[in-house]
Design a protein that fits this description.
single chain; two-stranded antiparallel ribbon; 9 helices; globular; about 200 residues; alpha/beta
Length: about 200
């Protein structure tokens, strides 16, 4: 009989808050986080849209005064949500040191703004003006890589890209790996940043 997977901790950074109980209650009340959006990344939109951005987000609120420069917004969101999930599941740094904890992140356009901004800068200013720190975030698995380094996750590192169901596919991937016995424990989630490029 294959082992079953169990969820032992939850971490959320969302437009409706970062507490699972409060988020659940807000959804049960039918609350909507969608607001009219007219500009993104200081660029006016051709037509107003509705989105649910995470407002007033600051990684230092979750992780203290650290160097967040290597992380773009998607990376910051992932690292902070991972911190909350690990804390919720009581995965201390000492326990992570002794355990191969896998990381599976679902996304569709992870780091789209960073990627296009990097390309735009090199096209306009030339390759020698490209920012090395920005280049590190121009791959789709940057958020997962940064999160593994940040939290000392030494197991398999996987990024799943499956459109709107990327987060669910990441959960399914973890369930399959645990069922096959190739993984014992995994930190699983999804991330998406709201930016001009993803809106367009």
């Amino acid at each position: 009989m294959r082992p079953k997977a169990a969820i032992t901790g939850v971490g959320i950074v969302s437009a409706l808050g970062d507490n699972p109980r409060d988020l659940h209650q807000a959804l049960c009340r039918g609350e909507c986080a969608g607001v009219p959006i007219t500009s993104v990344n200081d660029r006016d939109l051709p037509s107003p849209g509705i989105a649910a951005p995470v407002k007033d987000f600051s990684p230092s609120h979750y992780l203290g005064d650290r160097n967040f420069r290597p992380l773009d917004r998607a990376g910051q969101l992932t690292v902070c949500a991972a911190h909350l999930a690990l804390e919720s599941g009581e995965w201390t740094s000492e326990l992570r040191e002794k355990t191969e904890l896998d990381l599976i992140v679902g996304t569709t356009f992870c780091g789209a703004h960073t990627i296009t901004q990097f390309d735009r800068d090199t096209q306009i200013s030339g390759p020698k003006f490209a920012k090395p720190l920005s280049f590190a975030n121009t791959v789709i698995n940057a958020a997962a890589g940064h999160t593994a380094i940040w939290h000392n996750l030494r197991g398999a590192n996987t990024t799943v890209v499956a459109g709107k169901v990327s987060g669910l596919r990441a959960l399914k991937h973890a369930q399959i790996q645990i069922g096959l016995g190739t993984s014992n424990v995994a930190l699983v989630g999804g991330v998406e940043e709201f930016c001009f490029e993803t809106y367009r």
